[in-house]
Structure formats: C-alpha cells, structure tokens
Amino acid sequence: MPVAITGSGLHVNNFNLIANGVIPEEGTVWIDSKNVWWLGLGTSITLDYGSQNLINDVLVSVDNNDRYAVDYSLDGFVFSNLFTILPSYGNVSASRGGMDTMSTDAASSEFVPGINFPPITARFLRFRATAGDGFYAVGELEAFGSPVPEPSTYGLIGAAALLGLAALRRTRRMKG
Hints:
This protein is mainly β. The chain is built from one helix and eight strands, in the order ββββββββα.
C-alpha cells in the first residue's frame, strides 16, 4: 500500500482513488467517479511505497483504448519503464469501450502477457498516458510483492546469528 500518492497535471477526482482497492467494473465509463481522469498528455501519478519493495505483479484498470506507461524508480527521480499498456490489450473491446482491468499475475483471469515483467525492486511507481484519443483514465493500480530489508537489518540478522553461535559454543564447552 502506498504511503503517498502525488501527481502532476490537470485531472478530475482524487489521486488516492487509484490505490483504494476498488476496481471499476469492466466497461465502466472512463469519466466515472471511481476513476481519476484527464484530457491530453502531461498528467502523471506517482505512488510512493515508503521503502524499497520487491514487486512481483501489478493489477491496473485503465480506459481501454489508449496507451499508458508504468515506470518504476528507487529514488523518485530516475524512472525506468516497467511495462507499456497498448490499446489492443485486455478483455474490453474498443466497440464496447470503458475501463479494462489487466494483471501480470499468470493465475489471474485478467492476465495480459504483454505487460508481464520479471520481479523488480522499487520504491516508486509512476503511471502516465503516452498516446491515444486524448481522454484518459485510471481506476486502480495495485502492486504486489514484499518489502526489501534495509542494509542495517542484514547487520542485525548477522549479529544475532553470531550471538547465537557464541551461546551454542559456550553451552558445549560447559557440558564438555
């Protein structure tokens, strides 16, 4: 769960909607109150998870006829592309239109191979539109994974292991 969600550009609805656990139904109109939506390129939304995480999978709900990028970063300044969502991905046809849910989890019914990625370490995810009809929306962006221990945690684990070995050795000497 992100600790902060920030963004740039003109948009409608609160950025926090994209991480509230509510996934719009397939085909929901892009300007629905459950979505963050905007006109034109230039809006981006950044989720800060507060610390580094190993991210294995992502679930995202987007307006189905546009192109979007999901980028990742360790520091919030330098971003790399994690995957790009193409208008041809997902289950909602262009003729039906509306929101479409996609997942990188191969066990999910929403799995889209084109957005699958190997696990990465990141603190930030950024979402942005890159092309389309000029009418963009995101309903949900969920990342799945686990926290990466801080280097100081490794030191504590190592120290605890050494203390445990010393105690074991001392116990053996006392018995012997």
